[in-house]
Amino acid sequence: MKKLTEMTNRELFSVLTGSDVIGQAYLQKIVRAYLKHAKAVNRKDEADLMTMVREYMDGVYGEIESE
Fold first, then answer.
1. What is the C-alpha separation between 38 and 61, in angstroms, rounded?
2. How confident is the model at residue 4 (pLDDT cuts 50, 70, 90)?
3. 25 — alpha (psi -120 to 50), left (phi > 0) or beta?
4. Are 27 and 4 within 8 A, CB to CB?
5. What angle in degrees, to the nearest 10, is found between the helix axes of 9-17 and 49-57?
6. C-alpha pair distances (Å), 47 with each of 21, 36, 39
């Protein structure tokens, strides 16, 4: 399986809606971190899943946990 950082938006969406509960839970955690961060900094623009994953891995949303 590819790392989340290597996936396209389509692949990330498949993880989010698929049967891999581990990948699904981790990606949901990233989305929740994005939403919390966006609210805290009053971010109005929308982000796609690839952007959320990249920003999460870059530490934009705070401290990250290993993949």
1. 9
2. very high
3. alpha
4. yes
5. 90
6. 23, 13, 13
Torsion of CA 6, 22, 13, 41, to 10 degrees: -80
Task: Please identify which residue in the block is written with the tokens 């790392």.
Answer: 3
- Per-residue pLDDT band for 67 (boundaries 50, 70, 90) equals very low
- The set of long-range contacts for 53-61, using a CB threshold of 8 Å and a minimum separation of 24, is 53/4, 53/5, 53/7, 53/12, 53/27, 54/5, 56/30, 57/5, 61/30, 61/33, 61/34, 61/36, 61/37
Angstrom distance (rounded) from CA 57 to CA 55: 5
